[in-house]
Amino acid sequence: MNPITSEEISEAVVRLPSLPTIVLELINALDNGDVDTNTLAQKISHDQALTAKVLGLANSSFYGMQNKVGSIPHAVTVLGFNSVRSLVTAAAVVGTFSDGKSQVLDYAKFWKHAIATALSAKAIAKKLGVNEDQAFIGGLLHNIGRLVLATYSPSRYQEVLDWRSQHDGNLMAAEIHVLGIDHKTVGRAILTHWKFPASIVETLHAPDVAHPREQSRAAAVVTVADAIAYGLDVSGGEHDRVPVISQIEWDMLHLNDAVLTDIFSTTERQFEEACMILGTNVGE
Amino acid sequence: MVATDTAQEILLDDATPGMRLAEAVLDRSGARLISPGVELTEKSIHALRQRGVLRVNVVVSLLEQARGKQTEESLQRLDVLFKNSVDSKPNRLLLDSLRRYRTRTAQ
Description:
The complex is a heterodimer of chains A (284) and B (107).
Chain A: H1 6-14, H2 21-28, H3 37-46, H4 48-58, H5 72-79, H6 81-96, H7 107-128, H8 132-141, H9 144-152, H10 154-167, H11 171-179, H12 183-193, H13 198-201, H14 217-231, H15 247-253, H16 257-278
Helix pairs in contact in A: 1-12, 4-6, 4-16, 5-6, 6-8, 7-8, 7-14, 7-16, 8-14, 9-10, 9-12, 10-11, 14-15
Chain B: E1 6-11, E2 25-26, E3 32-34, H1 42-50, E4 55-60, H2 62-81, H3 89-105
Helix pairs in contact in B: 2-3
């Protein structure tokens, strides 16, 4: 056991590569009802790489638009500002963290799983009639803490992976055993550092068995989406295991076989395209 | 019969209309009832049953073989993915749905 201290976590978070300024502005505007969407749309347009990815997603089967979306302001008009914001955030986060090299983390597999979780969370949210963009971002970033732990101290993260292989256990248990902290806790620290609104940060909360009533439905959406992404085997990792879904979280979503089937096929249908547009070297 | 297709012996009870015979069907005395290459129909399956035929050799296309193998592999993979969580009831429900989904989409 070789625990990570809270000082080290703070240091790891501060040492993260910074997101493009426009993304931080967009995130900060998440809780602000009084945003000047025109100005923000103009600012996004200045980042050409980001714009290309966002327009690629806007024109993909993701939205099934009849007509081609040609610009960011146009995308804001037809998809809404919130959707554009989540696409920009997705493109920026994946873009910022996609080309690292690591012995202990396979970036392609990592993002494949994250993207499938995001798509699945969005599909679940749509069925429930809750905020789809929040679910999408929560799903995409649910494992961001793992990326930080793995890049901050590869040798200690290797211990985590070794422990998991030896015990065929889940990753969270291995992290707690070796590091004394799990990646969801770290993930919350990162999202807070980036000033994500509480509604997104709370999607990374573990189920609170003691206080089931306070359990957030948004967190349940991400938990089940995570399990579905593993179940659909998009990342194909040797040690991939579907994490346990608590009864409280499952019951909150009222999913039946027909609804699940729909979510599976939506996720699979959008997956390849989303990976290609976000450019997460998934081509193998 | 295409070179890549293979013959498979199945129970007459599992035969369905549209399946193509890989070999002639003979009665107990060795007389030919149906020639190879002929497609089974509801009527011919019934007639064969009347004659006491229990098994027939049908053509399985390469595509069908590949599909069957793929489905089997994905079902086995599901067992691996869920092996640490099948004790949880929600996980078992999710697994059941995924199994049905994999079996259905393979057809």
